[in-house]
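Session log. Operator J.P. requested a structure for one protein chain; no other inputs attached. Running the standard single-chain path with token output.
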Amino acid sequence: MSETKAPVKLKDKWRQKKWYNVYAPAAFGNVEIGKTLADDPQKLVGRVLETTLYNITEDFSLLHVKLHFRITKVEGDKAYTMFIGHDLARDYLRSLVRRGGSRIDGIFNMVTKDGYKVRVGIIALSAVRTKSSQKRMIRHLMEDTVNKKSSQLLYDELAQQLVLGKIASEIYNAAKSVYPLRKIEVRKSELVEAGSPVQPPPQPEAQPPQ
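Structure written below.
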């Protein structure tokens, strides 16, 4: 007579999972941007979270700016991230387009002072139709401005200036001498390749008194 085996109890993986608080990097104030669930903290590394700039700044006018962060490190119940890009809400972009005007798009690759490679998409809008030659000049000014700025900035500094509209303002000021534009936005950014964080210079060793 065969023995009846007791049923094997499967572990309830859901019960094993734990909530982790996720934080933005220092460039965005180290604020909590959400919570995420995992049964192993190492499974969190590489996970991408999306939030809005409004959730960080509490400025309602920035609700359309979506930020993307990747978890890079977990300590206890805290998960830390790095900024990997942003984009603008589609409804917001559609609201910028006006009949009778022109839309000028450009996609450019940037390299920061600390070697991070970033791809950006920029949109310029004019109130009236723009000639092809003027569009080329505006794209040239876009590229020239982002290349100069990125070479002067560390990655964290660039991230701030991209999402807060400072890069767009510089392009606008450079381009208005060519053609009166109504609006310029950095509609998207994407981290293509990480560089090396700049380390502080070593302090000189103290010399014994003579």
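Operator note: The longest strand covers residues 181-193.
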